[in-house]
Amino acid sequence: MEATFVVVGGGIAGVTCAETLAFYEPDESIILLSQSSLIKSVTNLLAITQTLTRFDIEEKHMNTLSDKHPNVTVIQDSLIEILDECNVVKTMGNKRIKYKYLCLCLGARPKLIADNNPYVIGIRDTDSVEQFLAKLGKSKRVVIVGNGGIASELVYKMEKIHVDWVIKDDHISATFIDPGAAEFLRTRLQKTSDFGPSKRMRYECDGNVKRAGAALGPDWYKHLEIQGGIEDCFSEQVHIHYQTEIVEVSVNEANEFAVEVTLNNGGKIQCDFIVSATGVEPMSDFKITTALELSEDKGIKVDEFMQSSVKNIYVAGDLCTADWEHAKQWFPMKLWTQARQMGCYAAKSMSSANKDEVVLQDFCFELFTHTTKLFGYKVVLLGLYNGQKLGKNYEIIFRMTKGVEYIKLVLLDGRLHGAVLIGETDLEEMCENLILNQIDLSSFKEDLLNPDVDIEDYFD
Ligand SMILES: Cc1cc2nc3c(=O)[nH]c(=O)nc-3n(C[C@H](O)[C@H](O)[C@H](O)COP(=O)(O)OP(=O)(O)OC[C@H]3O[C@@H](n4cnc5c(N)ncnc54)[C@H](O)[C@@H]3O)c2cc1C
Ligand SMILES: NC(=O)C1=CN([C@@H]2O[C@H](COP(=O)(O)OP(=O)(O)OC[C@H]3O[C@@H](n4cnc5c(N)ncnc54)[C@H](OP(=O)(O)O)[C@@H]3O)[C@@H](O)[C@H]2O)C=CC1
């Protein structure tokens, strides 16, 4: 078999890459290799501002892609080896596919605090969510370790279970937000009225919707009933262990709670199982003739055109490490947002190489943007939202209305470099413009968040 373009990986990066190639190269052959017959595609893509987008993710049958694009063939198989000297990939199903350009979008897998332990699970895709839900339904106590996206979503959504949340930091959701925003969000975890001290507000699911389709979309948990085995909701609790790490996990199935966790402060927690929401590691376990340059976390290094160190091999999504000089207000983070952008841009680069044309770096790499939901609030992160790369003497302006909005602007030398917008602030566009055009705001920065002042007046 052969194709001009071969893309490996049926996730967001791979499917976006294949679809973009089909658009730019309608007369060239494209093969998408996917391990699963279900591929993840972007739906309801909405441009909120110049660089900020929101979209859903749907898992669809792989044939939907070839139905939509006649020059795309989707093959359900796994890559096992790349013979880059003769531009051939070998698959688990013993196929040899010749390519002119290859794009690897194999994603990443959960990086667990303990491997090969059935009581320590990670969450990555639909299968792992189902495994998690099955365990949870029979459980009364769970430990969640990690303080990022998955842990934040799970702790907020789980019901009828006692949660011990073990985090290394002095505040929650530290991969996304600062202590002030964390305090604003934490109130969503505790409600001291109807349910007594340190109980969580119960979140009713939508009617009798048990679970969404297979998609792990940005609201992957929204239509799931993530429920434990506690019958009376008065014993569900979230206990947050700040600045704490797990030093040992021991299992004794004869005990009421099979798992005992030992903490670095000497504390011990008994639980039914542990969710290790502790980041991901790139899926770079395939053979290749010419070694690819890898980063420390085993991501495949790519240049500003998403090209790897091996000729005609491109990489996008969680598998790659952005090894070019980053724009001032951009940095990589393993997100759908960036997987889609990288998949699209890798396709443009491959097509330009095929047509021997010049390609310019995509504007999306000028400014870090991410929109998501945390603890039921809309969260928009722009640029260096936590002062990343700004050293110590940046300035913060912020406005908060309890339970409504939390707005933090990060300025250096009078110029806006980042923003955290929690709630329906409607400030995305203003902040994006101020970051991109680097206007000196010194003379009116006090009015930036003054609700009685229309900041646009300063520019008319
Ligand atoms: C629970 C969870 C919730 C998340 N929520 C958000 C969110 O709200 N917002 C956000 O921006 N990001 C979120 N993320 C991160 C997001 O999932 C990833 O950044 C994104 O999916 C990466 O896309 P990808 O295509 O690079 O990798 P993946 O989506 O992992 O796709 C990789 C694909 O490659 C396939 N593959 C792997 N090895 C091979 C092989 N050898 N041969 C063939 N195929 C192979 C895999 O089966 C998979 O289909 C979340 C992640 C998790 C785990
Ligand atoms: N709503 C969203 O936008 C969501 C995004 N995601 C994305 O999916 C990917 C996977 O999510 P997730 O697994 O939550 O990864 P994240 O990178 O978001 O968070 C990992 C967390 O685990 C901590 N950690 C890492 N190793 C250990 C350890 N050995 N012991 C204790 N803590 C540890 C990290 O701390 P430290 O940083 O200090 O190492 C960090 O707090 C991420 O790229 C995330 O951004 C996932 C869910 C939702």
Description:
The chain is α/β, with parallel strands linked by helices and 460 residues long. Helix content is 17%, strand content 31%. Strands 1, 2, 5, 6, 7, 8, 19 and 21 form an 8-stranded mixed β-sheet that branches. The model is unreliable at 191-215 (pLDDT under 50). Flavin-adenine dinucleotide is lined by residues 8-14, 33-36, 40, 78-79, 105-107, 123-124, 149-150, 216, 218, 220, 283, 286, 317-319, 334-337, 339, 372. Residues 5-191, 231-343 form the FAD/NAD(P)-binding domain. InterPro entries: FAD-bd_OxRdtase (IPR050260), FAD/NAD-bd_sf (IPR036188), FAD/NAD-binding_dom (IPR023753), FAD/NAD-linked_Rdtase_dimer_sf (IPR016156). Pfam families: Pyr_redox_2. Belongs to the class-I pyridine nucleotide-disulfide oxidoreductase family. PYROXD1 subfamily.
